[in-house]
Amino acid sequence: MAELFVKQAKQYADARPSYPPQLFQFIASKTPSHSLVWDDGTGSGQAAKSLAMLYKNVIATDASEKQLEFAAKLPNVRYQHTPSTMSMAELEQMVAPQGTVDLVTIAQALHWFDLPTFYEQVRWVLKKPHGVIAAWCYYLPRVSDAVDTVLDQFYSTDVSPYWDPARKLVDNIYRSIDFPFEPVDGADHTGPFEFVTETLMDLDDFLTYIKSWSAYQTAKEKGVELLGEDVVRKFKLAWGEDGQKVAKFPIYLRIGRAGDA
């Protein structure tokens, strides 16, 4: 998974959306204690910097050293490069001892993980029974009718052959992803719960966002430039004369607690 994002790490850091405060406030309201978070698959720290405002300490891990280079440095966030798959001994050494973590978060990354192994580790580090796991993905941004039409066609036709099969879990907004946890207090299911994040983009920002897709990099390595002149022309025509537009990214959250198991 990590190697898919190495070559476009700066584009990822520059172009990917941040997440809305409402998302983190909702998650934080479900953890009785706010001492320690493990943000796995942190990438360039988009979620970690928001979690750092609500929790005393954040351990933010990623298998990509290159992505971690672009993460914002904060006094209560410890960034840690880890192997793609950690042993339990490495987990204790690099992340946290057993039963000490209040919250595990995974932003736009759970679909890449070996879920049975990861969930075993989540249950090991979380406090019982109220430790919480929260994983979310976001889908294609909505900009305007014209831009959305071009983007949806581009995504489903041009880009589709270059996505890893795991991307289908995002296409299904995490409804079908294995998530064997108990509903948090006040909920009768584990999601997906929907949020929205908004960001201002000009056309260059928008194209940089597309270039941050793993599928774009995969195509490029196969000698295919997905953003060829014809495609860029279609986006320019759809974008129109406006400099910046509001891009609304829908976010889908799965959240549950460890329970006693």
Number of strands: 7
Measured between the Cα atoms of the first and last residue, the distance is: 29 Å
**Major sheet:** 7 strands, mixed
Q: Extract low-pLDDT stretches.
A: 1-9
Indicate the structural class: alpha/beta
How are strands sequenced across the largest beta sheet? 3-2-1-4-5-7-6
Can you tell me the overall shape? Answer: globular
Estimated radius of gyration? 19 Å
Give the strand content.
15-25%
The helix content is 25-40%
Give the integer mean of the pLDDT values.
92
Count of alpha and pi helical runs: 11
Can you walk me through this structure?
There is one protein chain. The chain has 261 residues and is α/β, with parallel strands linked by helices. The chain is built from eleven helices and seven strands. The protein has helices at 9-15, 21-28, 46-51, 65-68, 88-94, 115-125, 145-159, 167-171, 203-211, 214-221, 229-239, and strands spanning 36-40, 57-62, 77-81, 103-107, 132-138, 193-202, 244-257. It has a seven-stranded mixed β-sheet. Helix 1 crosses helix 9 (203-211) and helix 7 runs antiparallel to helix 11 (229-239). The longest helix is centred in the middle third of the chain and has 15 residues, at 145-159. It is globular. Residues 1-9 have low confidence and may be disordered.
